[in-house]
Amino acid sequence: MAKAATKVPSWISKILLPEIKSMVKEVVKEEISSEVKVLDARISALDSKLEERTKSLDSKLEERFKALDSKMEERFKSLDLKIAALDSKLEERTKSLESKMEERFKALDSKIIALDSKLEEKTKSLDSKLEERTKTLENEISSLRNEMLSLRNEMNARFDSIEKRLPLIERLAQIESRLERLEKQAELGK
Predict the structure, then answer these.
(1) 144 burial via Cβ count (<10 Å: 0-12, 13-18, 19+)
(2) How does pLDDT run across 107-120, given as a tens digit for each residue?
(3) Alpha carbon of 159 to those of 135, 164, 170, 172, 173: distances in Å?
(4) What is the C-alpha to C-alpha distance for residues 18 and 26, in angstroms, rounded to an integer?
(5) How far is CA 133 from CA 58, 118, 128, 175, 186, in A?
(6) In 3D, which of 25, 22, 20 has the Cα closest to residue 8?
(7) How far apart are CA 153 and CA 145, in angstroms?
(8) pLDDT higher than threshold 80 for residue 88
(9) For residues 147 and 171, is the Cβ–Cβ distance under 8 A?
(10) What's the pTM?
(11) Residue 92 has what pLDDT?
């Protein structure tokens, strides 16, 4: 408008231009207000349609949620029943296993007691046999010592001849080696 005002004579710009400006403003306001009314009417119609659809969707969602809730409740009840059945089976099996373990422990205890008694009997038998052998060895050692003493005495008595002493010395060496073997056996037996 400023460009148009420079080309228009001044009296027109002073009188007519403000008048035209105000008229244009009013026309624009009327046009905008009528468009706004049309847009308001369309928006309110869309709002009502949207509200109807929202209500419809809300009711459908509510129905579906109710159906899902009832299905979930049924499933939870079914699961609870299955869990209860599994719990009872588990408890039965646990009791069965505990009774079997108790029976096995008792059987093992009786076997251990029987083995202990057998071991004790064998130990007593071996102890008595060992004691008998030890006594026998001690008796043999004692008789060999006595024999050795008598041979020494005899050897001393026959000291006069070396020829007479040689068989006695050999016999004495044999007896001493036998005595050492018997003493070692007696030590091992203890």
Answers:
(1) middle
(2) 998 998 988 888 88
(3) 35, 8, 14, 14, 17
(4) 12
(5) 107, 22, 9, 20, 8
(6) 20
(7) 12
(8) yes
(9) no
(10) 0.36
(11) 92
Whole-number Å distance between alpha carbons of 152 and 30: 163
Question: What Cα–Cα distance (Å) separates residue 148 from each residue in 145, 151, 158, 162?
Answer: 5, 5, 15, 19
Spacing of C-alpha 81 from chain mean position: 28
Distance CA 86, CA 81 (A): 9
Tokens representing 160? 């006069």
Whether residue 156 is predicted with pLDDT greater than 80 in this model: the reply is: no
The SS3 assignment for 9 reads coil
More confident: 18 or 104? 104
Decide: helix, strand or coil at residue 187: helix
105, pLDDT greater than 80: yes
Q: How far is CA 42 from CA 33, 47, 95, 112, 183, in A?
A: 14, 8, 77, 99, 130
Q: Which residues of 78-96 are buried (b: 16+ CB within 10 A; e: fewer)?
A: eeeeeeeeeeeeeeeeeee
In residues, how long is the chain? 190
